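thought: fold this chain, then report.
action: predict
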Amino acid sequence: VDYVRNTTCKSQNQSMLRFLAVACFLMVADGFQLHSSVALRCMSSEPPKQIDVTSSSRRNILKVAGGALFALPVAANAEYGELSSISKVQGPIQDIIQPGHWIGQFIGVNSHSETWQFSQSPEKVSAALVATLEQLSPGERKRLLIPNFEIRQKDATRVHVLTWTKSEWLDALDVSLEATPAGGTKAKVSFYATGFFPTSIPLAPLLNTALFFFPFASPGGKGGLLQNFRIDELEAMVSKRLKA
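observation:
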């Protein structure tokens, strides 16, 4: 029994190492194409949605590497089911480190920031944003790619939310609220990816920290960039709720 158990563990470890090796190779090779896309985006006046960065997305790279070697060990999560236990543990840790945001915030292919202006107070804006998230319909969750989320902070100064995709990639929504002299609110909004690997993979925060330098993309939402799309959609939802 011990021999079988040790042999099985050794085989699993070798499979994981092979997967990581192929994934890293694909990231390096595919990174050249992403750098070209980023350079084009910086020199072009076209909006981000017209720049094709899907070839360097986390999903595509992991799909190729995982399919070639073994089934990627992500949680068997129903479309709107319970978040895996390992993501519940590793998610908050990765949110503190945020290795995917270290460089991503400067490149803009997996991170986006905007400033919202509202005539209502920070308290009302915060409450409207929280209510919008908590009352998302199944269709809205599917469109935003947020089947699971956890609101970590919600007050008149800040709203911070951890959001997971179906495959449990962790993205964070951070909103800083500030009262204006006229009695309204200025909200600084950021939506960003926290790491290349999903938090359902063991040691994801450590692996993502080691790969912090790789500028992966987060495509999605009407053919554009996912974080831009999410922020635009949420702003419209919050504005509609505040006017109601």
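thought: worth noting. The first strand starts at residue 111 and ends at 118.
final: tokens above.
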